[in-house]
Amino acid sequence: MASGVGEQAHGSVASQFYSNEEETAVDMTTSEKVVDLLNQAALISTEEKLIVLKQVQELIINKDPSLLDNFLDEIIAFQTDKSIEVRKFVIGFIEEACKRDSELLLRLIANLNMLMRDESVNVVKKAILTLTQLYKVALQVSLSVSDMQEACWDMMTQIKEDVLALLDSDNDGVRTHAIKFTESLIITLSPRTPDSDTPKKQEGDISLDKIPKDHTYIRYDTLCEEGKLALEQLLKFMVHPAISSINLTTALGSLATLARQRPMFMSEVVQAYETLHANLPPTLAKSQVSSVRKNLKLHLVSVLKHPSSVDFQGQISTLLLDLGMSQSEITRCTPATVQPRKRLHHEPYVEGKRIKMEASLVEDDEDKEEPAPVVTTKPSSSVGTQSAIDLTAEFLLPLLTPDNVANLVLISMVYLPEVMPASFQATYTPVESAGTDAQIKHLARLMATQMTGAGLGPGLELCKARDEEVKEEYGGAGESSSKDPLIIRKLSAVSLGQAISVVGAPAAYKSPITEEAPQIKKFPEPILPTTQPKAPGASGRKKVFKLADVVQPFSEAQIEKLTNMAIKRILQSEKVIAQSGMSHVRVKLLARLVTQFEGGKKNDLLQFILEDMRGRSELAFSLLYHEYNEYLSQQPPSSLDSYEHCLYTLLSGLQEKPEQRDGLFTKLVLEAPVITDSALEVIQRYCEDESRVYLGMSTLKELILKRPSRQYQYLNVLLNLSSHEKEKVRSTALSFIKRMYEKEHLKDCIEKFALTYMQFLVHPNPPSLLFGAGEDTEVAAPWTEETVRQCLYLYLSLLPLNHRLVHELAAVYTEAIADIKRSVLRVIEQPIRGMGMSSPDLLLLVENCPKGAETLVTRCLHILTDKVPPSPELVERVRDLYHKRVPDVRFLIPVINGLEKNEVIQALPKLIKLNPIVVKEVFNRLLGTQHSNTCLFSCASTNLCFGEKNVYTSEVLAVVMQQLMEQTPLPILLMRTVIQSLTMYPRLAGFVMNVLARLILKQVWKYPKVWEGFVKCCQRTKPQSYNVLLQLPPPQLASVFERCPEMREPLLQHVHSFTPHQQAHIPVSIMAVLEANSRKPEPEPQPELHHPEIIEEREVCCNETEAWTDLLFCFAMYIRV
Amino acid sequence: MPAHPLRVAVVCSSNQNRSMEAHNILSKRGFDVRSFGTGTHVKLPGPAPDKPNIFDFKTTYEQMYNDLVRKDKELYTQNGILHMLDRNKRIKTRPERFQSCKEQFDLVITCEERVYDQVLEDLNSREQESLQPVHVINVDIQDNHEEATLGAFLICELCQCIQHTDDMENEMDELLQEFEEKSHRPFLHTVCFY
Q1: How far is CA A800 from CA A733, A830, A837, A878, in A?
Q2: Is A51 an interface residue toward B (CB < 8 Å)?
Q3: Residue spans of chain B under pLDDT 70
């Protein structure tokens, strides 16, 4: 944990807590407070939880550490918390706790180990950071506390190995943290020397030099070896060709830290810098190269500033010059004291080094008695690593003749990449001193570096040979564990002169046996071998080639069998994987695998998906996308077959499944990258299925609207369905098309289709297109009602939306044969009614009435006026048509009640000559207007008809009255007819009384106008009407007296004339009305005052309307007679 | 996405124009942001290119403002310096020097290569302790008002993208590559440790 941040956090949390304390719980003990806080923490949100837990940490670590032990378990329990931040807190707590009381590590190490394996990388990273700190604590504790269990240390060692292994992690950040851990580990596991540049805060940190040689289980030499191994791993990691820029940057920094804090590694560090500079990873982008070079420069300068860099100043300044630093700047950064020595090694690399090495060896001898003997390893190791390169360079130098160099250049031309790598571009500086001795030497050295890196060259072989010797000696020395290992090192250094270092040679020529031998003998830990195989396999470039040599390719059959088995296993592991929450990986894996193979596996997988399409839809989609991807990645893009097959199989599978209510089909169609023709067929089949027609067409609609590139193709499918033989399919399709017809861009296409279909009607026979695809139909089949309708469905449903289309119909109609005409007339009712008589296009049609379309126009007129009276416009058009173009009286029938009286009278003779059925219709139309509210034909006058007494006998009138009375609602002219009849035939009075009595049963007072007539009639027919009046309910009777007060007295008299027995039958309420002289019963608020006026008015306007009613009666009578 | 908001530092030379513009935008977008300069002094344009106004980092924006008003109100109104100072004093009291700040950040964004170098040098010269990583990214921005505004938006977009990564450290490399392509400018990027 960041101790800086940590302290800040503590400060703020503490203050927060203490203020709380003052407010709330003054007398609580710290322990109680902790309990309280922990109880809270269990229940609250993550953010609050963190605050509370930090308070607890403050309390038990800083305020009262005696509590730490008590509450440790409670806090650690949060390590399984769902929140990453809480788990990170636990790690931080462990760190703080162990720093406070290092013995706690004994208990907490296992938890740390668990957290190291957390699923969240952020937790893992935090754990690595903490381990970086705690490794030192563990080592310290193991030394100082005698009863520290060995197991704990073993575990720490194990964890350390695990962290080192994370250098190979997939996660960049984890690797970065692992590098920093490695850096710290190397520093801990190597001795501090007087020239170590140790940060102040780490002054007290433990390092190898503080480890006693006689500890029971902490073995000095083991640790030393582990440190060296770690360095080796770090160096190996750095030369990985695909290292990320951040990892590389981190590693560069770590090396600089190592060089300054452990100058004994200066040689390896400089060597690694050199190698890196010459071999920047090819994967780096241009800006990354600049970043890395900037870092390299920075770190080289910081290394250069260290006094121990003296032996490497030559190399470092060459590198810095290459990196674009000026000589003066370099000089400024070089430690002043060693300036004279620098020049010595600068110029002649190889020889200079030798001399210097000998010099340092002499120094080493002098240092022997000094307490820090490790210094000796520094020169010796540098001797070791450099010598291999030096030897090879020396070997190369005489070979670099102009001829050889020219040949080398020519040969290597072949291997040049096509594009200049960013790293080369950045590092390239023109050779100024070509051909000079110094430049040739420089070249030789550069080549030697590369060759050594690649494991080639005589220098390397020589070193290897010497390494063997070292091993033998070292092995011999290793027998006695008490022996100071440094002596061995020195021995080897001395005896080899410039041989390889044991401390940490570059990976290339390091023999693992050197370390292994003694380790296996003395310390058979199970942990160490795990790193062994990792170390060579980790990241070396050579290894790739070796692997290819070793591995034998499988035979085709074997591959086939193995893949089949593997896929099968993945398929079958559905549930298990789902439980582990990794099903997305499985899905991806399956899809990717299967798309790479042909044939059988694909079908197997498809079948597998279809077995439970709902549960495996994710797999289905994944597979589909992969197939499409595969298609896209083909160069040049070839066939969609494989994708099509996949989509087709899935869709048909869904289509054939009986129960499939969820929108999987829709989803599949809409999310498929491309809808192929065969898929479209399946969609069509789906739409034709009556139980799914709606879903199918909704899907189709979505396709049309959302896939504009092929929308016409999709639209066509829908349009074809609009004439489908199944009613449900057809009507659904029509309703969808109607909705789509509103879209401007689809309008034309739909219209064209509808008109094309309608045009079929002019053909002598229906086109085979109209019959289902598979049906074998003779081409010469005659038109049937059904086929005619098929051609018209779409058109007719569009008609109300676009009235203009009506003219097309007229055009087709005139050309069509009679059978078709009849069918057309039958089917147009709905749409024409939908258009309404105000439609300008319909009016235009009536006006123009193309020749041959008269019947059509008449039909239209009838449909339009069937339920409503004709509009003046329509009447006008028809009149024009009738007078100017087609004098056919039948045109007039539909608009007859819109015509002037004289017109009607003129037409009447012609009309009456028509077929009686037609005449009846005319009558119905005229009567129909009586029911409407628009006319005032309520005051009937039947003078015209009634004058013809010979026709209208009393019998006829009685029948008419009877019929009128049976209508509901009561016709307004009823009473007028009754009164007129009565006037003509007074002997009908008895019949009329019956009528009146019947009208009371029909509650005649509910029809104000009829009621008015009723009262009038009663008035005229008194005294016969008295008995009728007495049948009225009291309020109505009162209403009668309202209108005719003079009736009351006679009626009362009439009642008084009854026998007492008869009188007893008169209800008291009626009597009350009759006798109510003073207290007038209040009738319902009828606008009685207006009645006279209204009646007046009607009398006035009767002149006009009378004609109508007369006419009506003419017809009525005519028909009945 | 990291659970806590990114702790961001924006650094330019004088903590006046580029870093403040970015500071302004980033804080409006909810970032935990601070801004700094790396220079030894705060320099503002003066009456001539060779006569800059030089202040130390202790001077508040307010004082600078008043000083410039006193010197030549019209000139400094015209070149936008007063406006800038006015904006700055609303954000914080005075410029801050990066090298004097011990707070830890997740992300340090510098506005020119020289500043980037100075930040790196400073961070590397500190004693490592917690080993908490800090990513340093350089976005080259010319030191004028327009470029500062454009640059600030670029920085803001960058920060938002980084904030939204699931695993910042793992995705940073790729993200920056994408940004380089998109904005057609190279970003220097490195990681340091506290």
Answers
A1: 17, 9, 12, 22
A2: no
A3: 1-3
Q: What one-character-per-residue DSSP string does B15-34 give?
A: SSSHHHHHHHHHHHTT-EEE
Q: What is the ipTM of this complex?
A: 0.91
Please state, in angstroms and rounded to a whole number, the distance separating the CA atoms of residues A331 and A747.
Answer: 83
Measured between beta carbons, the chain B residues lying within 8 angstroms of A286 are 186
Encoded tokens for A258:
């190592």
**Percent of chain B's residues with pLDDT above 90:** 72
In this structure, how many other beta carbons lie within 10 angstroms of the beta carbon of residue A135? Answer: 21
Q: Domain coordinates of chain A in residue numbers?
A: 675-742, 744-771+782-834, 836-928, 946-1075
pLDDT, tens digit, 9 for 90 and up, residues A648-691: 888 888 777 766 666 778 888 888 888 888 888 888 888 888 77
Q: What is the pLDDT of residue A1058?
A: 80
Triad B40, B44, B50: Cα angle to 5°: 90
Tell if the CB–CB gap between B130 and A177 is shorter than 8 Å.
Answer: no
Determine what percent of chain B is predicted with pLDDT higher than 70.
98
Question: Which of B104, B168, B186 lies at the smallest CB-CB distance from A2?
Answer: B104
Q: Look at residue A27 in the predicted model and tell me its pLDDT.
A: 58
Backbone φ and ψ of A888, nearest 5°: -105, 120
Residue A455 binned pLDDT confidence (cut-offs 50, 70, 90)? confident
CA distance A822 to A825: 5
Chain B contact present for A177, CB below 8 A: yes
d(CA A135, CA A152): 11
CA–CA separation, A252 vs A257, rounded Å?
A: 9
Asked if residues B84 and B78 have their Cβ atoms less than 8 Å apart, the reply is no
CA dist A128 and A117 (Å) reads 10
Note the pLDDT tens digit of each residue in A1069-1092: 888 887 775 444 444 444 333 343
User: How many residues are listed for chain B in this entry?
Assistant: 194
Q: What are the start-end ranges of the E strands in B70-158?
A: 107-110, 133-139
Q: Is the dihedral of CA B44, B50, B51, B56 positive or negative?
A: positive
What is the amino acid identity at position B174? E
Taking the CB of residue A199, how many other CB atoms lie within 10 A of it?
Answer: 14
Rounded CA-CA distance A1050/A674 in Å is 96
Higher pLDDT, A501 or A893: A893
For residue B139, the cross-strand partners are B187
pTM over 0.80: no
Domains along the sequence of chain B with CATH: 7-39+97-193 (3.40.50.2300), 42-91 (no CATH)
- Report whether pLDDT(A582) > 70: yes
Please give the helix or strand (H or E) that residue B106 lies within, else none. none
State mean pLDDT over A839-843: 83
pLDDT exceeding 70 applies to what percent of chain A?
73
A582: amino acid identity, one letter: M
Residue A468 sits at the vertex; the CA angle it makes with A464 and A474, to the nearest 5 degrees, is 130
- The torsion angle over the Cα atoms of residues A482, A487, A492 and A494, rounded to 10 degrees, is -160
Q: Which of B124, B130, B167 sits opposite A173 (nearest CB)?
A: B167
Q: What is the mean pLDDT of chain A?
A: 73
Look-up of token digits 């098929």? A790
β-strand pairing of B53-55 with B42-44: antiparallel
Say yes or no: A184 contacts chain B, CB-CB below 8 A: yes
CA A86-A88-A93 angle, 5° bins: 90
